[in-house]
Amino acid sequence: MGPEALRALNPRLVYCSISGFGRDGPYRGRLAYDQIAQGMAGLMSVTGEPGSEPMSVGTSIMVRMSVGGFVVAGIVAAVLTGGPAATEERCGAIYPHIKDSQLRVEPVAEDAERARARIRNTDASTTARNTTVLVTFWSAANQPIESTCVRLGDIRPGQEAEFEVAKPAGTARLSAGAQSTWDR
After folding, report:
1. What are the DSSP calls for 70-117, one per residue?
2. Is-contact 78 48, C-beta < 8 A?
3. Domain ranges of the chain
4. Is the pLDDT of residue 183 over 70?
5. Is the C or the N end of the chain the one with fewer CB within 10 Å?
């Protein structure tokens, strides 16, 4: 059963499907695992011995850590914002791509009412298209309060963009993850 059939039974159902290269584009049918993600993200080019072939890092950091975080962020956003239809209406469909790990979100400044952050495309050659940042606000009891989406558009290789969000009352911390449709 696919998401449409299941949502007919329960419209608030959060359906998660994971693929390494997204639902469209020339790589959509290819398998992806951590060594492929490390190689395509450029991580293998900075590991190993000088003058040697590229080498993967010693643990599964791309798939286990990055993908899991994006999946959790997407599901939490869907639940907090009134279900999949409401999330898709505000944020667009969430289809993480293996290259989304190339987007770095860093805090810049924060006060009681607002938070400012910076996103950087660390990929050396690929533009991140239609970039959206999902920001989730958490209480001191580590409970999600609310999520919001910030649409930033295209971010060229090496480019940075800043964004600002209003913090809801009771925010102790926030988390952010970005997704894009990548030039293929």
Report:
1. HHHHHHHHHHHTTSHHHHHHHH------GGGGGEEEEEEEE-SSEEEE
2. no
3. 3-182
4. no
5. N
* Three-class SS state of 145: strand
Rg (CA), the chain: 17
* Prediction pTM value: 0.56
Region class of 181: left (phi > 0), else alpha (psi between -120 and 50), else beta = beta
Phi-psi label, residue 43: left if phi above 0, alpha if psi -120 to 50, beta otherwise: alpha
The two three-digit tokens of residue 43, written as one number: 């991580």
User: What stretch of H or E contains 12?
Assistant: none
Contact between 118 and 162 under an 8 Å Cβ cutoff? The reply is: yes
Distance CA 123, CA 176 (A): 19
pLDDT(86) > 60: no
- Each residue of 120-131: pLDDT tens digit? 888 888 888 888
Residue 152: which region, alpha, beta or left (left: phi > 0; alpha: psi -120 to 50)? alpha
Residues in the chain, overall count: 184
The pLDDT value recorded for residue 33 is 77
Region of residue 105 (phi > 0: left; psi between -120 and 50: alpha; otherwise: beta)? beta
